Amino acid sequence: MWALDQPYAPRAEHLLADTPLALLAALAAGAATVAALVELAVLPAHAARVAGVTAAHGALLATALAWARAGVASSSVAVSLIGLAAATAQISPLGALAYLGPGLWVGSLAARGRLTSLGLGTAVSPGRVAAGVLVGAGLSSHLLVSASRTLGLHVRLDQALEVLVAIGYDVGANVLAGECFFRGALFRRAERRWSFAAASTVATSAYVLRYLVDPLLPKSVELMIGAVFYLALLGAINCWLLSWSGSLVPGLASASIFFAAYRTLGVR
Amino acid sequence: MSLVAAALVAVTALIALDESGPASLIRHAYLVPVVAAALRFGAVGGGLAAATAALLSAPLLLPEIERSGLTDEAVEGLVTFAVLGLVGVLSGALRGRAGRHRRRYEILVTIQRTLAGEAPLDQALARLRAALADRLRVDEIALVARDGERLAVAGGECVAARSLVARVLDTGEPAFVSDTGHDARPRRAFATPLISGGYPVGVLAVERNGEISVGERAALETIGAHVGVALENARLASRQRRFAAELEERVAAVRRELEELDRAKSAFVAIASHELRTPLTALQGFSEILALRRLPPEEVTRLAEVMRREARRLARIVSDLLDLSRIERGLEPALCRVPVKIEPTIEATVDLFRQWTATHLITTECEPSLPVVDADPDALERVLTNLISNAIKYSPAGSAVRVGARALAGAVAIEVADAGRGIPAEVVHRVFEPYYRVPDAAGAAHGTGIGLAVVKALVEAHGGTVRVDSAPTIGTRVTVVLPAPSGPFLDTPRRSRVG
Lengths: 268, 499
Hints:
Largest sheet of chain A: none
Structural class of chain A: mainly alpha
Helix content of chain B: 55-70%
Number of strands of chain B: 13
Order of helices and strands of chain A: HHHHHHHHHH
Order of helices and strands of chain B: HHHHEEHEEEHHEHEEHEEHHEEE
Shape of chain B: rod-shaped
Number of strands of chain A: 0
Oligomer: heterodimer
Number of helices of chain A: 10
CATH superfamily of the largest domain in chain B: Histidine kinase-like ATPase, C-terminal domain
CATH class of the largest domain in chain B: Alpha Beta
Helix content of chain A: over 70%
CATH topology of the largest domain in chain B: Heat Shock Protein 90
Number of helices of chain B: 11
Radius of gyration of chain A: 19 Å
Strand content of chain A: under 5%
Distance between the termini of chain A: 55 Å
CATH architecture of the largest domain in chain B: 2-Layer Sandwich
């Protein structure tokens, strides 16, 4: 038993220890440079989106991997793969298949046991994954019904290719980076220091804030209130799923299903 | 849980089918699954059920608000969900509190029952740990209690230095660790002192992969205090039982000793009477012969010598008895100490024995230039007489008795050795007890059983020591060590240690 036979030393590590500041600074500088060049019409407008996606999701995923002590190289590869996927998706809808790259890279790291601290690569029962699927399905159903009845937003299948590209983006960048950082890294670290309630509040607040400042979120009051409501619910439930199952997989499933449902609404 | 979910969905479906909309009276039916969830799963369950009801109703209520604004019906619907939430959380909290109280009382009863037995501390701790592990719903639990200088540990081998438990034992303050840092998932640890009389007498430590809430920690502290008091009570009861058993044992031992002493004294009276009567009979008989008959001068001399020897024997027995009487009163023998040369004293005493007995070969081996000792000559002679007499009595006729003396640093050692049957090792330590006679020797020769007790008292009154070395069938050697001060002696006799 740890309390009997292991030496006790109060925790000295800071909450944000191991953050790859140099990489984050480089990403921010890169994004700012691209934005300036787009503003000067040196680069096409799509370049700003590629740089933004790479910088935002790359920063979250790179930080999560760094906190898991997966190595700077692993973080750099993940950022590069996200950037590559964002670029190819802009060139052709089929390029969105490149969003499989970050997922496969994270999967390979998890398979090598380097991401257990994030809740990846650990054993998880199918029942717990099914619980994540059920949570995602429940929230998605509610979203679709509520959006349809209150905002008049209906499921649109006329732009299936566009929806599939968006789902690819969610699975390979948005959900992957969000769950790895806000749940696997931030919530886990906070939970090691504070109670579940405090840790999930911190992680969920940061999660909601990240979407509120996202320039891709439509700036309508109803949609923003809806985003806060559903993202807070999704964030809190995913924290509980991680704490309950010990794995990030159920949370990845619930978030993927929820965002897939959201994409079918065709919100712009 | 599935029943609650089904009921919530069913009520929502009924409201959707009702034309009254969100203000339908059916909405009050939400109370049933919400209260059921609260009673089954506590405040979290009640709150979640109420939130689920609100979520399910949102697609019905929100379009109504969007269409017609906050009408009375819409406000009624909103108030209903607020009340639902309140009822769910409150009834769940009350149920949770009642459950916690019940569990706490059950735990306290368990503690009292477990520690009420007469089991040793380690066993009691192990049983209590098993009982608490069942009720506290933790992954690991350990109980540590001070037992004198050692720590009794249940749930582990030992308490490592600088561990959480060691820290709580030192400080007497509870300690919570939000993560032990050794698992992929956060693992909480909490240790609280077992308090008795205001002092930590042990530690209760638990670990869990999950929350140990503030309420649980407070409950564990209370349990720790109860365990501390219960342990202390059990310890005191156990000590009382042990003391009672020890007292009983000691009383029995003392009674046995007294009985033995009583038997020994009875035997002593019989033996002493016999020992006194023998020389008296000789004195009486020979004196009557001398008074009534005319005898040749040689025969008169012989009889007078016998009478002198018996008179000396009588005097020695009486002196021993007087000394024994002083010893038993806690007094030391009266001594008149002067500088005494050992070798002449030994030679004189041995000469006397040579005259009296022809059955043994008595030899002396004294180192030359022995230092003088500060001793009472009479007492020294009685010591030697007792030892030589014993050596002759308890060794076979024809064997040798060796009397020697040698110088030690600041002392003189006198040894009397025989080639007798020896003394069994298990009773050697008892030969200096008054009235004690070695069982084998009791029938072998006459004796009062007080000689060696007197020897020991006399030697120790001189500041010396006496020791017996004996090997069965080989013989016995008694060594008397007397201090020999190197400074000049006063010529005048000095009384010392007069009790």
